[in-house]
């Protein structure tokens, strides 16, 4: 009998060597140096996809929601200025904190509060309407150094739900308060309270009316066209806000705030107040704040999965965020985006929606805002 040549042994030995090398290169799957910087992934470990971050040396970033709301051809210069100005003001509010040596938690709270106070965005003033024409707001905040977190859901009378989330984190043994208990807790801790009409804006009211019209079968506008009631309601329901930051101590933080989805059922809670879905911060991996179809972001555990990919696969922030937002979540039936910041200043903002309003501040003080889909192409 002819003896088989031993050529099969070569690939087998090569595989064994590669496995050993992987184990040695990525001890415990960490792929990170003691400073928390992301080490390059071992060859073969990296999920295919985007590897290069959108920006480097970022210290603070904000988003103003994923979606299609801003079309370059239909946006007046005044409106463009208002959106860019709103994002830049939020960045400057956070920058002020960081410049004074403040913490990343204080910086993300300051940035998000500024966006909550801006009626253009779907958070605080300008929040969308529920199906029964009310407002129920959700927010959360997380600190990367010790994984402390606070959140509020279904807030009806706090001017700044993110301040409520912060109070839960700092002043209660809990992570998430909801409904009346959340409003009462905020009021007892001295937060500004408002009546429901404070949140009202004409644009959000029109979006609710368009959503009701779409439910009835949508007479105005062709079905599927950009001016159909469903499309108007969808476009105008966007505008959730969030922020991520790294401070001088290399501590990360993230925060998110929203009115939710136009025409949502009363009592519906989205991803924004859920730690690991809408918001996550861990010093050794990432600070992330999401926006988009909340139910999908909850089911896909969006932000904690980005962190887990970085921690357990040793991939960089851009690869991990792209993998979750562009490759995995759309399969669950909804789109959206995330802003994600690594402790070394690598920043990425992938989205599966046509656009995502966002901006960032670099350590040398440069402010960048991106509001049109052609400035932030999806899947890139
Ligand atoms: N994620 C938010 C929610 O589902 C909405 C959004 O980001 O537009 O409540």
TrEMBL record:
<dbReference type="InterPro" id="IPR000246">
    <property type="entry name" value="Peptidase_T2"/>
</dbReference>
<dbReference type="Pfam" id="PF01112">
    <property type="entry name" value="Asparaginase_2"/>
</dbReference>
<dbReference type="InterPro" id="IPR029055">
    <property type="entry name" value="Ntn_hydrolases_N"/>
</dbReference>
<feature type="compositionally biased region" description="Basic and acidic residues">
    <location>
        <begin position="43"/>
        <end position="54"/>
    </location>
</feature>
<protein>
    <submittedName>
        <fullName>L-asparaginase</fullName>
    </submittedName>
</protein>
<feature type="region of interest" description="Disordered">
    <location>
        <begin position="28"/>
        <end position="54"/>
    </location>
</feature>
């Amino acid at each position: 009998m002819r003896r088989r040549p031993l050529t099969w042994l070569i690939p087998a030995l090569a595989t064994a060597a590669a496995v050993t090398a992987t184990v040695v290169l990525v001890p415990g799957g960490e792929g990170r140096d003691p400073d928390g910087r992301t080490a390059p992934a071992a060859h073969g470990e990296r999920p295919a996809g985007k590897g290069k971050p959108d920006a480097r040396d970022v210290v603070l970033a904000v988003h103003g929601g994923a979606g299609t709301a801003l079309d370059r051809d239909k946006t007046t210069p005044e409106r463009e200025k208002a959106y860019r100005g709103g994002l830049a003001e939020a960045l400057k509010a956070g920058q002020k904190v960081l410049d004074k040596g403040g913490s990343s938690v204080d910086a993300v709270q300051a940035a998000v509060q500024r966006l909550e106070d801006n009626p253009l965005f779907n958070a605080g003033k300008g929040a969308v309407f529920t199906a029964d024409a009310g407002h129920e707001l959700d927010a959360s905040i997380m600190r990367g150094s010790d994984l402390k977190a606070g959140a509020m859901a279904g807030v009806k009378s706090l001017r700044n739900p993110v301040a409520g989330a912060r109070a839960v984190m700092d002043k209660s043994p809990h992570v998430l308060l909801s409904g009346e208990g959340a409003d009462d807790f905020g009021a007892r801790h001295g937060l500004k309270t408002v009546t429901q009409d404070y949140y009202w804006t004409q644009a959000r009211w029109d979006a609710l009316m368009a959503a009701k019209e779409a439910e009835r079968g949508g007479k105005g506008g062709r079905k599927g066209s950009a001016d159909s009631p469903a499309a108007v309601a969808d476009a105008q329901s966007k505008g959730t806000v969030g922020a991520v930051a790294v401070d001088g101590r290399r501590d990360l933080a993230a925060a998110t705030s929203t009115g939710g989805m136009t025409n949502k059922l009363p009592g519906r809670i989205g991803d924004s107040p859920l730690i690991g879905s809408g918001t996550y911060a861990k010093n050794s991996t990432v600070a992330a704040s999401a926006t988009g179809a909340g139910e999908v972001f909850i089911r896909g555990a969006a932000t904690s999965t980005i962190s887990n990919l970085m921690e357990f696969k040793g991939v960089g922030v851009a690869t991990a965020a792209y993998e979750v937002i562009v490759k995995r979540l759309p399969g669950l039936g909804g789109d959206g985006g995330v802003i994600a910041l690594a402790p070394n200043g690598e920043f990425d903002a992938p989205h599966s929606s046509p656009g995502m309003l966002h901006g960032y501040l670099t350590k040398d003080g440069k402010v960048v805002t991106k509001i049109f889909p052609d400035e932030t192409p999806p899947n890139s």
